[in-house]
Amino acid sequence: MKLIKATDYKDMSKKAASIFAAQITLKPNCVLGLATGSTPLGTYAQLINWYNDGDLDFSQVKTVNLDEYVGLDGNNNQSYRYFMNDKLFNHVNIDKANTNVPNGKATDKQAECDRYEALIKALGGIDVQLLGIGNNGHIGFNEPNKYFDKGTHEVNLTESTITANARFFATMDEVPKTAISMGVQTIMQAKKIVLIANGPAKADIIYETCFGPITPDVPASALQLHPDVTVIVDEEAYATVAKKLGK
Ligand code: PGA
After folding, report:
1. Ligand 1: distance of its center to the CA of 77 in Å?
2. Is 2 helix (H, G, I), strand (E, B) or coil?
3. Residue whose CA is closest, atom 2 of ligand 1?
4. Would the pTM of this model clear 0.85, i.e. be above it?
């Protein structure tokens, strides 16, 4: 595991984006694993800037996203498909047919999970996977558990996630109760992984992820076993590492 300390959010985003830009340059038809959330926004903005400058070509790039809410279609502005279109795909020359997000409207959820897992394999696997991290160490929708979640699966959202999302919907019935997410094993099969985190709320979990015991209580700790992981954090998210390791 490589841990890189960036100065601030902008620097973290630029460093992460440069790894993705290098991947696209080295292999124009690469498979990028992408993430939603607030952390990757700066990374996507930087990639869009480089595209606008004429320095990046997404025409052959393929993507697979980590997860999607069950019950939401891509036109719903709370769906992760909508997020990806809005924050990245609509602004670069990617072919939308080459972008993949689990189908939250699939009637047979297990069949959709199997299809998504098979799709990743058929694409030849993920060249670089981008990850954010939850304060509790979740990656994708893999929450702390008694075991590491394996392949793509349907996840019950926690009460706190459901409650937090309720404000975005007219009725409680519309609020997603489950999601489809790549499992920890799916993520671990990516050839290269880049995890980004910023802000003081992420400081303790970054220490646990990189230096704590490998345990499904901290799903991201599994990444210690992966041969090519780069963790990029701003100074605030590095604070507990600095305090405990004196660097
Ligand atoms: P955030 O979410 O980027 O909005 O902090 C990260 C995550 O929960 O994976």
Report:
1. 17
2. strand
3. 37
4. yes
